[in-house]
């Protein structure tokens, strides 16, 4: 006897309902970074746009920062943790191979028993999470989904590597995705380029690190990454606008992954964004926080009243893999 398989009811619109962030207490200046490398505050500012970054203390763990950011996002969305259907955590710096961070974070929030898993998509991880959350809500698999982007990249930074010591910071950002009256998250444009996997990576595997006693810090080939991000990612961003049916002049904000101000400038120019579009520059005080950078930047823009609820923003993440994802969202 053949029986039909039941599926979730229909489709519905999904949107971002609330965001929150957590920034570690310790502020690390360029001057402090330059105590370990041959560089200067002026050079770092000119090449990256970074003035300072936040580094987490011993108690500011991946889970602790995530719970703090998530609590603010839940409050902003007006829901309780036990209403969540899934918790997604985008990170590359939860250094325990298993268990994942997401189930621990879900339980600490009070969402015991919900689906929970980590996403390893580097600096594109938050945008990957947004698409997964949108799909879950739209299909009826979950009513509310929490997406967290969190990093402790200071744990993976070589303080004596002149090319990366000044780049990375720590922090967490979170967003609640749920039902919306109109589309609040546009079609995603995402992909990867494994042929360039070597340009951003850990310098060796954990197994090799155990054998030779050297820590597998992050290493990066700056010039190839800059060229790829500056030119190829503008094309991806334009595709996201096209798929959402949104023109550049209709945008209120552009919130790219906070990798480097020069990369952001190149994309702004390539996209021909008009002057009224607010450009996120959170990197100046936060550094590159990988999966956390987009929600951190969005929350700062909201806190500073540079954007308002209902505004339209283009978000794009890109990084190690190489991987990328972009979509248009309505700001909660």
TrEMBL record:
Q: GO biological process: what's one of them?
A: fatty acid biosynthetic process
The Beta-ketoacyl-[acyl-carrier-protein] synthase III C-terminal domain covers which part of the protein?
A: 241-331
Q: What does this protein do?
A: Catalyzes the condensation reaction of fatty acid synthesis by the addition to an acyl acceptor of two carbons from malonyl-ACP. Catalyzes the first condensation reaction which initiates fatty acid synthesis and may therefore play a role in governing the total rate of fatty acid production. Possesses both acetoacetyl-ACP synthase and acetyl transacylase activities. Its substrate specificity determines the biosynthesis of branched-chain and/or straight-chain of fatty acids.
- Keyword Lipid biosynthesis recorded: yes
* Record's subunit section: Homodimer.
The protein in question is named Beta-ketoacyl-[acyl-carrier-protein] synthase III
Record remark on domains: The last Arg residue of the ACP-binding site is essential for the weak association between ACP/AcpP and FabH.
Its organism's taxonomic lineage begins at:
Bacteria, Bacillati, Actinomycetota, Actinomycetes, Propionibacteriales
Q: Is Lipid metabolism one of the keywords?
A: yes
Subcellular locations according to the entry:
Cytoplasm
InterPro entries per the UniProt record, alphabetical: ACP_syn_III_C, ACP_syn_III_N, FabH, Thiolase-like
Question: Highest taxon of the source?
Answer: Bacteria
The biological pathway it contributes to is: Lipid metabolism; fatty acid biosynthesis
